[in-house]
Write a structure and sequence with these properties.
- The structure is a single chain.
- By secondary structure, the chain is α+β, with helices and mostly antiparallel strands.
- The protein folds into 4 domains: about 1-140, Beta Polymerase, domain 2; about 145-225, Hydrophobic Seed Protein (Orthogonal Bundle), CATH 1.10.110; about 245-380, no CATH class; about 385-440.
- It contains 22 helices and 11 strands.
- The protein has helices at about 5-20, 30-35, 50-55, 105-110, 135-140, 150-155, 155-170, 175-185, 195-205, 210-220, 220-225, 230, 235-245, 255-260, 285-300, 305-315, 330-340, 345-355, 365-375, 390-395, 400-415, 425-440, and strands spanning about 25, 45, 60-65, 70-75, 80-85, 85-90, 95-100, 120, 125-130, 140, 170-175.
- The strands form 3 sheets. It has a 7-stranded mixed beta sheet with strand order 3-4-5-2-1-8-9. A two-stranded antiparallel ribbon has the order 6-7. Strands 10-11 form a two-stranded parallel ribbon.
- β3 (about 60-65) and β4 form a beta hairpin.
- α7 packs parallel to α9 (about 195-205), α13 (about 235-245) packs antiparallel against α14 and α14 packs across α16.
- The structure holds adenosine-5'-triphosphate and magnesium ion (MG).
- Adenosine-5'-triphosphate binds near residues 27, 112 and 157.
């Protein structure tokens, strides 16, 4: 048994070993190496304390000194996490409280799953595998290190991590681990929203089909606890939703998030929900999409996503996954004006994914082409694109007021119908006349 170990990895280990500190490569890199997958992401566990690590290397970054983690830059400038051996001293279900340890064995004992509790000595070329993680990897089994009930109770995030790793490597969860996991699912409410979110984002951003982990979320009861809006979907809609998520690229996990949340408007309206007419200025495609926006925003706010992601994802959700019927140029421009041309690319990919899952639906390609051509022609889509502005109204002798915006919006309607009319000579007389009328009634 020999792992292909890069020179830079040996260099870091040698530097620490020559100073007298036992040092191992651990975690994902060893696991992925055994699976025959290459990884650039080598992490280390060492006897050296963080300040000793920092003294030995020229370039280091204090990543989490309290947790014992120092970032070490190798000679190619790639950063590696070097973490002092640790053991758990106290746990509260939300995270483990750790202290430094003297032996790699202690460090491996606190790790979550057998496939993650592997260590490789880059110089002696020895694999340390006290829980037969290699056997589990070969058999395709995910199981906890130690008693599953206890390991989940120490840190309930391990429930979601189990689902993610099982999905990622297509592993069966060992029956004992599964039983404890299902029993632990109700305790997921105790986790911080950020940790719950990061798990979902990793599932959506992974190259393995997210449907595998997400199906396990549902089967284990985790969905019911952390994503009740998704739990409410019936089986058929849930299956279809997962298929659409899979059909999107892992490079845009937020678009996958939109595909996942887009159907949540479907179950019956709930009495306690806010009116979907008023969704932060977003005009949704239809009442179901409007309800989806309200519920998707509730999920995303609960997960504490940034305002940018919230706006982006809810904008995609607002249109649903199926393309609108837009037969004329004017209809297409009005639609683009409403949703914002910057969201177009996301919609096109959502429609394509939806169509791939259900080829009996209308092919979105012709509409996609027409919309792309429309955008490429650069038509005026917002008041700021008009050939006349509020300054023209002031030059006409008017005092600024809210009616300025209304008059300009009216002109935008004209040029959305016919972009050729967006010329000063064409618009000034109309502006003059409408402004006189509006000022008269203002
Ligand atoms: P990835 O390729 O996703 O980074 P990874 O195995 O490196 O996979 P990380 O989340 O980076 O996963 O964690 C690194 C290692 O730390 C894991 O392999 C595992 O041994 C350990 N670990 C991480 N989080 C926990 C946890 N909550 N409980 C126990 N051990 C954990
Ligand atoms: Mg990692």
């Amino acid at each position: 048994m020999k792992l292909d170990t890069p020179d830079e990895v040996r260099w870091i280990a040698r530097t620490l070993e020559e100073a007298g500190y036992d040092t191992w490569a651990v975690g994902g890199a060893v696991r992925d190496g055994l699976r025959g997958a290459r990884t650039a992401d080598w992490d280390f566990a060492t006897l050296a304390r963080p300040n000793q690590v920092r003294r030995l290397f020229r370039k280091t970054v204090p990543l989490g000194i309290d947790h014992g983690t120092v970032g070490v830059l190798d000679r190619k400038g790639v950063m590696h996490e070097v973490t002092t051996f640790r053991k758990d001293v106290d746990t509260d279900g939300r995270h483990a409280v750790i202290s430094f340890a003297d032996r790699i064995e202690d460090d491996l004992a606190r790790r979550d799953f057998t496939i993650n509790a592997l260590a490789w000595h880059p110089l002696r070329e020895v694999l340390l595998d006290p829980y037969d993680g290699r056997g589990d990897l070969e058999a395709g089994v995910l199981r906890t290190v130690g008693v599953p009930e206890e390991r989940f109770a120490e840190d309930y995030l391990r429930v979601l991590r189990a689902l993610r790793f099982a999905g990622r490597f297509d592993l069966r969860i060992h029956p004992d681990t599964w039983a404890a996991l299902v029993a632990s699912a109700p305790e997921l409410v105790r986790l911080s929203p950020e940790r719950i979110r990061e798990e979902l984002v990793k599932v959506l951003g992974g190259t393995a089909p997210p449907s595998r982990a997400l199906a396990l979320y549902r089967a284990s009861g985790a969905t019911e606890v952390v994503y009740p809006e998704l739990h409410a979907l019936d089986d058929a809609l849930w299956e279809r939703t997962l298929a659409v998520v899979d059909a999107l690229s892992p490079a845009s996990e937020w678009l996958r998030m939109a595909a996942l949340l887009a159907p949540v408007g479907h179950p019956d309206p709930r009495a306690d929900e806010p009116s979907p007419d008023d969704v932060r200025g977003l005009r949704a495609a239809d009442p179901i999409a409007a309800r989806a926006v309200v519920r998707a925003m509730a999920v995303l706010s609960r997960l504490r996503v940034s305002n940018r992601q919230l706006d982006q994802v809810s904008g995609w959700v607002a249109e649903g996954l199926e393309p609108p019927v837009l037969e004329t140029g004017a209809e297409r421009r009005r639609w683009l004006a409403r949703v914002g041309p910057e969201r177009l690319d996301g919609y096109l990919r959502l429609w394509q994914a939806r169509h791939r899952v259900d080829p009996s639906l209308a092919d979105p390609a012709p509409l996609a082409r027409a919309l792309r051509e429309e955008v490429a022609a650069g038509p005026p889509l917002k008041v700021g694109d008009l050939a006349v502005t509020g300054r023209d109204l002031i030059a006409l002798g008017h005092r600024p007021g809210p009616w300025f915006g209304e008059v300009l919006e009216g002109l935008l309607e004209l040029v959305l119908d016919d972009p050729a009319r967006n010329e000063r000579d064409e618009l000034m007389p109309i502006l003059t006349e409408r402004a006189a009328r509006a000022a008269g009634s203002a």
